[in-house]
């Protein structure tokens, strides 16, 4: 009988795989998934060649607009129960704000909801561009506002009336991009990534599951939690919110790179001169050294590594393609 083996990895494990984790990725965004890279490299080192990653679980087991649909169907008591329970178990928003958010989504006509979402989206992302460390000249040259608007149109924020449309909309873009990235990261570590949630039979089964098996008493993916009782510790099954542990591993890589002097401010300034505002980069570097926030330096390190490795990368013009 085949058995699943378990291995414990922590940020302290980063040092054993430092060279692998700091090598230039095929695509810059791939290296943000340091924890995932570490899993694949560790599995490869232990002699494994295939790993189940389960990334699709967040998509196929998501409850979607369940609470909104409850309100639209007039099931106010159950909707209110789930809204209050969600605020209690997830702890990220007040019950009143949660109720207002769901009620607004349920009652506003779709055309008005789309208009409001578009206005809020543009306002929010224009603020991001304004406060971002991205050099303003670079943002203008690449048409950043137009790119943001294109992204908004591709990923509409409103909730479709039909659940089938909502489910398909959620799976297609997320899983297409996500699974390509996971496969690429696994291949770089000599591994094959397999996701049982992406089996067609599992997708179809989850699509037909009543939403109460995906969200109940404020707990998302409740069916997965219940079937793993006795297999996983309660601290894992019933934790109020999933912590973002990936940042801990990213921070550790940058900390080690700084200690080894592979990562320095002059290096970042040289590689990112055309893309990042120098003053904000210097401020971010100081925050990194002080242990306040290393997020920008983490991303800068990854981009600088990719730019360095691809400095002589051939560029094909449009007329050559045609």
Give a structural overview:
- The protein is mostly helical and 322 residues long.
- It is built from 18 helices and 4 strands.
- The protein has helices at residues 18-22, 34-45, 57-60, 66-72, 76-90, 95-107, 110-131, 136-141, 144-154, 163-188, 200-208, 222-227, 234-237, 246-259, 265-271, 278-289, 295-309, 318-321; strands at residues 50-52, 192-194, 215-216, 219-220.
- The strands form 2 sheets. It has a two-stranded parallel sheet with strand order 1-2. It has a two-stranded antiparallel ribbon with strand order 3-4.
- Strand 3 (215-216) and strand 4 form a beta hairpin.
- The longest helix is centred in the middle third of the chain and has 26 residues, at 163-188.
What is the H/E string? Answer: HHEHHHHHHHHEHEEHHHHHHH
Structural class: mainly alpha
Main sheet specs: 2 strands, parallel
Q: Fraction of residues in helices?
A: 55-70%
* E-strand count: 4
Distance from first to last alpha carbon: 55 Å
The backbone outline, from C-alpha atoms, is globular
Show unreliable segments. none
Strand content: under 5%
Mean pLDDT: 85
- Biggest sheet: strand arrangement: 1-2
Q: Total helix count?
A: 18
The value of Rg in angstroms is 22 Å
